[in-house]
Amino acid sequence: MHASSERLKESIHQAKNVRIYKNKDTPYDFKLYPFGERGTFIAPELIHEITDNLAVSITEQFPAYDYIVSPEPGGHTWGILAAYKLMKPLNILRLSTELYENYEVCIKRETAYNENYIYFDGFKAGDRVLLLDDVISSGATIRAIAQQLKEMGVHLVGVQAILAKGEHYKALEADYEIPVRFLSKV
Question: Please, what sign has the CA dihedral across residues 52, 75, 90, 125?
Fold first, then answer.
């Protein structure tokens, strides 16, 4: 971890467990991290700490990229804050909605607890991008995005997350030959 991460560590430790269902037969035990996709209240001190630590980590680990890419629902909030702090452009990967039906590039994202579609817009071959997401669990979201970026000729320089759960990030590093960094790990 970087400089001060006490609030982040505390928020991880205090996160509530809930059971959600992908369908009626598939339960998933989910941690409600305040900074994650289903978090709600985030104290300003935690926002400040995470944003500053993301900026430091990105600056140290990823010196050469054109812009940040962050998926909804959890990553885009932190992508916005990091892009602002670093004065970098941001491309938000949007979830399925009728507003994006005409996008040419759309992929299915399936995780242990969710299934939806991610829409890509504004990319061009040769772009160098940094993927920023909130939590790496199984790595399914990152895999889907990385594969699509590769097919589009977009160079993924690495992944930055707030939290890595388990060791799945190691397979992402090996499979895509990219660095995967995070502020904390459980």
Answer: positive
